[in-house]
Input
Amino acid sequence: MRSAHDWLRGTQPGLVGLAILIGAGAGVGAVVFRYLILGFTELFTGRSDYSDAGRAAHPLLPALGPWFLLLTPVVGGLLYGPLVHRFAPQARGHGVPEVMVAVARNGGRIPARVAVVKSLASALCIGSGGSVGREGPIVQIGSALASSIGQWLRVPPHRLQLLVACGAAGGISATFNAPIAGVFFALEIILRSFTAEAFGVVVLSSVTAAVVGRAVLGSQPFLVLPAFTLHSPVEYLFYAALGLAAGLIGWLFARVLYAIEDACDWLWRGPEWLRPAVGGLLLGALLLALPQMYGVGYPVLQNGVDGKYAIGFLLVLLIGKMLATSLTIGIGGSGGVFAPSLFIGAMAGTAFGLAMQAAFPHLGIAPGAYGLVGMAAVFAGASHAPIAALVIVFELTGEYSIILPLMTAVALATGVSHLVSRQTIYTLKLLRRGVDIETNTDTDKARGADDPLQRLTVADAMRPLPEPVDARAGRHDLLARLAGARYGALPVYDDSGYHGAVTAASLDDPWPATDDEPRAADLASMLPALRPDATLRAAALALQGHDATGLPVAPTDTTQPIGWLDHRDVLAALTVDDNPAER
Output
């Protein structure tokens, strides 16, 4: 047994064996996750997919008509909200950033319970109407499974990171029947590096997962479309214009996503476990107005690319998907942003194609081809992952005839998105926590030895948590406490724990005239938390806009803050670093 253990964790053949094992496990996990979503969707709507049902009533609740849509996200939130809050807070959100930071900063270590909680929470969220995708959850599920196996075998950190990438590739491969796409998603987004060793084991894992997935789910492509052809070289100019526009749309989607999440953080005053249920009322109202936003929405995407919708409705669906996905994530839902990116790109591209077709009818333009190109271009603009975007859309659709305009649009979309911002829809979430994985390269590490902002961490500079206030404290007590406080914010606690922070700005806001004085719980808001292992450079970026309050510091496995940090603390740490005698 000892020899077998050493063989698995320390040899190349052992790594190959682990990659195949993880691929099989990820394939099984993807199949189970797929059926969980189908099962919960059937339970909540009476259909396997409600997005194209057209406000049909639930078969078991015909008296409610379409109004049951108002309640399904609430019921789903009551189920997955406590589950995530109690057992795995990392399962909240879209999942891929958590895997990225686990690989870049934590040596590939992901708690085993994340796989189980993420499966149930995301399936409940999507099945009850959450307008998110499957790829984020399955990446986190496959990665957590791989990390658990690697930690159990005590493999070295660099190998554990490779195994996590194998799990991510296997999850994508089996979920979308796209083994090549799984490979490049793992290499370009999760590992962010290409080596012969990584490529070999990730390919084996992806192929194994695809075999498992096809054995159960079949081998049909993601979309079934007629063949598209390019009738005139002039169309390359149109595709180039689409690429530029799609890059900006991808960038906009990321900003809308986090702007709505910030708004939800600012508005919510209750316990975090209840947030998905209460926010589910807003999501339900949106689904009632636009039921095409229910769940992942692949049938609606297919209809859009097939040309079944007019330009105006395509734009309505585009805006609706941005809002519905952002709201689902903002209220604490669990699901991915890859499928919404494809949906948004398909609507934008098809609308653009229809416009070009109307303007130049003699060119024989196929609007559906622009929809497919738009899918890849918007995802490339949002993720800055052009290879993954190219391969994923090509493999998901099986459409080779548009490869040249696809490459053109994706390259331009990635370029214009880079010009606007170096952050992606995934890294932006981490940067808001004070984690900048873009600096985690060998060059940056070498430069960091001479750069205190890069060398020092939040843990080196943070101060103890300010003395908390009770959630029942009144406005006058809070004003008195803030007058003598170091920071312009006070953490608020009740019997259930951390409840957010009261800021000086919130006390200045007008409050409705009532007999009851506002309490700390009414005024508190959730400030974005910094991680103790984040560099001071990343923390300084995250502190922009929070000069007056500073930000709480919390570990990755809990929402309870352990300290506080503002720009003065950063400067103090740098001063001490420059003058060792002051330490």
